[in-house]
Amino acid sequence: MTPGPLNAMHILEFSGLTKRYGAATVLNDVSITLQPGRVHALMGENGAGKSTLIKLLAGVVAADRMIVRKDDTDVLLRNPADAALAGFRVIHQELNLVPQLSVAENILLGRAMPQRFGLFIDWHALALRARQALAQLDIHGLDVTAQAGALSPGDRMLVKIASALVAAPGQTPCLYVLDEPTAALSQTESERLFNAIRKLKQSAAILYVSHRLAEVMTICDDVTVLRNGAQVYSAPIAQTSRDEIILHMTGRALTDSFPPRTTKTGAVVAQAANLASRGLSDLNFTLHQGEIMGVAGLAGSGQSEVLNLFMGLERPERGSLTLLNQPAPATPAEAWSRAVAFVPPERRSQGLALRMGARSNALSPHYRGIWANLAQETTRTAMLATRVNLKAANLEQSVWQLSGGNQQKVLFARAMAATPRLLLLDEPTRGVDIAARAEIYRLIRTLSAQGCAVLMASSDLTELMGLCDRIIVLQAGRQVQILTPHGLGTNDLLQACYATEHVLT
Amino acid sequence: MTGFRQFGTLIGLIAIMLFFTLRLPETFLTAGNLINISQQVAMLAVVAFTMTVVMVMNDFDLSVGSTASLAGIVAAVLFREHYPLWVGVVAALGMGVLGGLINGALVAYAGILPFVATLGTLTVFSGLAFYISDGATIFGRDIPKPFGDFARGGVAVAGLKVPYLTLVAVAVLLLVWSVLEHTTYGRRLYAIGGNVEAARLAGIRVAWLRLSAFAITGLGAAVAGLMYASRVASANPTQGSGLMLDAIAAVFLGMTMSREGEPRVLATLVGVLILGILNNGLTQMQVDSYVREMLVGSIVIAAVALSSFGRWR
Q1: How far apart are CA A285 and CA A119, in angstroms?
Q2: Which of B182, B195, B203 is nearest residue A353 as measured by Cβ atoms?
Q3: Which of A301, A305, B182, B198 has its CA 20 to 30 A from that of A133?
Q4: Which residues from chain A sit within 8 angstroms of residue B58, using beta carbons?
Q5: What is the ipTM metric for this complex?
Q6: Which of A334, A353, A363 sits opposite B198 (nearest CB)?
Q7: Torsional sign, CA B177, B183, B189, B191
Q8: Per residue in A196-221, pLDDT tens?
């Protein structure tokens, strides 16, 4: 029962990690050494075995073989309680906070709440302990009495990490596992998270799972790549390169994930003049056939709202907004019927009916007439599936069984089904692995080559710089410039996103 | 495992039929009794089939029972005032559509949860039925003879009389099946049931579709109310009240049979038959009606529980 020294530094050796489901080996003899002071990146495409590995470390799934040594003593991981006792903290991808509770309550959720007279919650002490946890991450000034539901995705992730910090006595954390923590974060939010990680790694080892190469290269010290359940590569970051990692992840070289620009732009498709709405102002842009226009800004600067203007989800209040010389659509139904296609930002909650197949999902905006014809629908979906290179057992397989990349391809099949004139893409590659990402870029290019105008919001600035002809830069909903990426770097775009000239009066 | 889960309910139906065939060798598996069952379940079937239409969108309608009662009362009151037969029938059906539209408007446009909205209209329609009938049963000479004769009539097929009520239920089944499985309207309803937000963003007119689907359910309830009134040649402000729970139970039983637990009208038919056959068989075995209710409730829970165990394994 004697707790170890508070700042104990432990070296963790995991070896022989193996997991089989029936005949399929999803993880085969993987070995990783983790130590405090170093962030170890775990990379691999969807289905490579990353999630399984995390589940083994968390004690959620029983390994077929696994040896865990903490400073030369064996650790047994039979269940999540064992993992917690060993000091392992796993922070999962989904931001599952209780939105109705305060930040402080969320941070201490599941722990003993500080009490008064053994009866009432001591709110003061509660807030204090929550602030202490946040301070460990160098976060100050976050209101711990605010409702967690009101926080931005970035703050929510930080709150979750803070809650993992609050350990019961005798369980000094020695390992943090972060599963794609930046998937829903903007660039600035990610920066704050990285600062927190730099702080965290001083006292514990960190296993960092991510799809994003750029951030792995900046904040990680070592990298391990999994492919089809096998460990194919491990190296210190200092001794490797992006290309090297990609090569090992995909098993083939992807010299350029952005296909070349071939598009010539044509007639005007959409136009905004001095447009303002509830959250937007000073919008002035013209979008042409075949043009790919990006929308960039810090998180919550109004990127989605610009796209929503064309879906009738956001109403113009002043100025003019036209689509093919007509006023902008007033409802999503009108938008689709006027050849606007939309890929929403949250594919699971806003895009897909998860229990239905690719056929039902791809065709839902495109039903015409009274009678439905199953044979025709199947042929049409099969054609679309080929065009987007969908990998599914069949067109009726429920889409929740598909990988993130393939789910996104179903949404692209939907968007392409009726030759769109304007394609609205909101975070088109969020949570999609590298290979599928490259295919999606190729699809966007193909559509624009066919004369479709594309308006695309993304928090992945590299993606915007690589794909777009021009980029609308927003600051707090206001258009500050239209940037041409040619000859510029991602840093230039990031700088344009920060408020410089505009000071609040 | 999957196969067993999906067909478990159908196997259950066959098991129940086998059981009664063995226990009631003389009376159960006879053409006469089967036709009798089809007539007994006809009203429930019509309500359950049209209930499936709203349940496809994850909505449901608790007011179908009182809508059925109200429709019967509306027709009977008009008959009593010597309006022609067709006026009473059309007014009753119109009443059902109107009630459904009210439900749909509350759910789709006012944004009230179906449970709350239709619980409210259940009470209102029931009160209205009592109000316009003065709480009394309308029967005897007030009901025109052809109206009562309808339920007793039928079409002779191969020496057997197939009752009109059965034929109405079959017609409603075919109609609902065509709408749900073979029209773009049905496809859109299933899309709404799959994910209402995604459906809206995919350009499906969610509000209008919900409104119209509730109208169909209301119409179905009114049809069932008229069938009931015809069968007993009288109208009573509470005679439809048993329909709602059984109809929802039948759809739930059916939902255990589809791959992802979505309602399908042919599966609802299996649910209706299970409930109808249990009722018929247990009555013949002279099982007390209270015991019958407990049995039926337990069977519904067991079927749904078994199927959800299978799904989340």
Answers
A1: 61
A2: B195
A3: A301
A4: none
A5: 0.90
A6: A353
A7: positive
A8: 888 888 888 999 998 778 888 889 99
